[in-house]
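Form 7-S
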Amino acid sequence: MRLVEALRRPIAEDLSGFVALLNRHQVPCRVSEEAGQQVLRVPDGWVEPVRELHQRYLHGEVPEAVAVASVGRGGEGLSVIGQTLARYWLTSGVLLITFVVAGLTWLGEDLEMVRWLSFLDFRIQGGYIYFATLHQMYVVGDWWRLITPIFVHFGFLHLAMNSLWYWELGRRIEARQGALMLLGLTLLAGVASNFAQYWWGGPGIFGGLSGVLYALLGHCWLFQRLAPSPAYRLPQGVVILMLVWLVICLTGIIEVVSFGTVAIANAAHVSGLVVGCVTGVIGGALARSRGR
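Output:
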């Protein structure tokens, strides 16, 4: 098998992690020292995918999903997908539940199904919606409603954007701090954002993972500031974009330009971000103290 140069890196750079990644995905490679630099060689057909994978690896992205598209071939690609889903089983599980709920509710169109998952039960009569109260929820024991709205999405774009961001951020936390941490943060942010949206906006039909996503973003962002970790290294533009979008939504301009057809759960977003920032500061501080 003919190996050709794919990367030339400084001698001080530790390539062992990246080489282990390539080995895990059965990519033949060899590293040699030439003229004071490390030279990584791979089969001719895999040069560009490996270079792209290395760039993402340097930016701290969890690389298995990239490897599926770039390196995996045929049966190997399916194997890598299975390994990725198994490794990030909680992130995958949350998304699976989200997709199942999207199907059962017809992306929020089936209100009879939505009512079983909404924060408060409701009934539709004579063109009006009548909501139950928090006390009634407490009396009948519908405790699942505290969290289930995060799985309800209204429209394909709503589902697609939230799912992609949960996969991107959730697997980082699962890889760095474990599935239990991701589960706890998802539940905490979900309950907090649902309560905040109810408290601020009153009874209504709302849902989506976006409050949780802002919690994951805030957690990764501030954890990284206190205890730098490749897994939590987010491009600066991503953080700025998400915060700018939050501010734009808070102005109410989205509702205006959509003529009221789109409602943004601003309280859920803000409360989720606050929760994530708090956990990120605590987690980052603990990690920093242990590192010392």
